[in-house]
Amino acid sequence: MIDLRMRQVCFSYFNGLVLDSIDLAIAAGQMVAILGPNGSGKTTLIKLACGILRPKPGEIRLDGTDLARLGRKCIARSVAVVPQQFHIPFAFTVAEVVMLGRAPFIKAFTEEREDDRQAVANALQLVGITRLQDRRFDELSGGERQKVIVAMALAQQPKLLLLDEPTVHLDITCQVEILELVRKLNTETGLTVIAAIHDLNLAALYFDRLVLLRGGKLLADGTPFQVLTETNINEAFAASVKVATHPVVDVPHVVITPREKQP
Q1: What angle do CA 46, 51, 54 make, to 5 degrees?
Q2: What does the CA dihedral 242, 177, 206, 170 come to, rounded to 10 degrees?
């Protein structure tokens, strides 16, 4: 698969510094969750990892090659992104939306080939939405739309999958389905996965490595038990919590303490 390395990566928008001196090495085949409060730089990090944004200063290497030296189409042949928001202004069918994932492989002014159609069929089957292929995308439920977006990313046949809040606005069943699918792909194919996640408990259940950001800096990096400590969570989120062990799986489970109940 593919590895990603960030060295002294910084990034600023017009209103100030978002990421500050991030050093991060993600080996091929790892499944990593990026955690942190709103504004900590999670989405910016995802955009930097796929070349949408460029570090200022700093260096990002994809399998040893400086990302700044690669064209967008070249990057898209290895890296797929599931964005936090995705809008289609036309009445596309599900199959047509998933076919958009083949854009890096289809030459301009040419039709898709048999291998493109097969890649779409495989992606629909992997995500379990073949039955929806002729439905209009804008008529689907939120959970169904998210599965289509994941299928579109998988149609790229990526080596690195980036997900920005893939479970936001989804019910519990859909959250589990999406993360179990990603976990299965990581385990069975070695797909490298980096996901920005809000839910600390979901991150602990499905990701072996967690990276916690605070104020644009890397606060903690390690296993769920190493990262999800009461001290780290309080420092990152200014929240009072208790961390126990999940009753079924040997991972930490974060319990929020309501402010009015705190001693």
Answers
A1: 95
A2: -40
* Paired tokens of 46: 């995802």
pLDDT at residue 86 greater than cutoff 80: yes
**Residue 50 identity:** C
* pLDDT at residue 160 in the model: 96
| CB of 210 closer than 8 Å to CB of 203 | yes
CA distances from 65 to 5, 30, 61, 115, 164 (A): 10, 19, 5, 28, 24
Domain 1-78+160-223 bears CATH identifier 3.40.50.300: yes
Q: In the predicted model, what is the mean pLDDT of residues 100-110?
A: 84
Structure tokens at 256: 């929020």
Where exactly are the structural domains of the chain? Answer: 1-78+160-223, 88-157
What distance lies between CA 164 and its chain's CA centroid? Answer: 4
For 79-96, the DSSP string reads EEEE-S----SS--BHHH
Residue 111: predicted pLDDT: 81
Pairing relationship of beta strands 192-196 and 160-164 according to DSSP bridges: parallel
Q: Residues near 59 by Cβ (< 8 Å), separated by ≥ 6?
A: 6, 7, 8, 9, 66, 68
Q: Which residue has the higher pLDDT, 227 or 107?
A: 227
11-15, 106-110, 187-191: which has the minimum mean pLDDT? Answer: 106-110
First to last CA, the chain: 50
* Helix intervals (H) in the chain: 42-49, 72-76, 94-99, 114-127, 142-155, 172-189, 200-206, 224-227, 230-237
Q: Helix (H, G, I), strand (E, B), or coil: what is residue 33?
A: strand
Contact 60, 49 (CB under 8 A): yes
Q: Let me know how long the chain is.
A: 263
Count other Cβ atoms within 10 Å, centred on residue 47: 17
